[in-house]
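Hi V.,

You were right to ask for the full record rather than a summary. Here it is.
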Amino acid sequence: MTRDIYGKYGDYLPRILEDFSQKIQEENSRSKTETGYKLYEHFIARVKAPESMEEKCQRKGLPVTTESALKSIRDSIGVRIICGFVDDIYNLVDFIKGLDGISVYNEKDYIQNAKPNGYRSYHLILEVETPFEDCLGNVPGAYFIEVQLRTIAQDSWASLEHQMKYKHDIKNPELIVKELKRCADEMASVDLSMQTIRNLIQTSTEEETK
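Predicted structure:
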């Protein structure tokens, strides 16, 4: 049987994803039990389809090989975490950074430093030590996980901007881009206000229990 671009290493990817996902979900349950607040609203995880990975290699001018898929491109495993509040994003980032066997390969905070078009999100590329052999023959092997963390508002905006990016027959694109940027700034202001309100509620509750 002819294997796809991941080769035999493709069998390990869902297992690595499941292990990482379980740790995040357990921390979410712990937070909810101890504080009454969830750390996230939605958790989306996937292993990139082999066909999509092959297309991405070609688009980037890389050899269509297992090494390209697992080492040069670092999103074979992807996780998107949608949080209710900005502080939850940073709490989750701190938790992830503290996990054993995980190091941050790359990190971009587009919340504090939004892209010019208004895009806001927190991106992590994690290098994870696993008991599985990797495509370079290392045991334990290293695999990459891409993690994106966003608020609900940021995720809604990103979905809309994604539609805009891949539609080629849109009239007045300049106007839409301008409106998207305006909405992104307004949503960021709302996220800040929502965080402030939750902080006030938490402070009030803590004072009542003293």
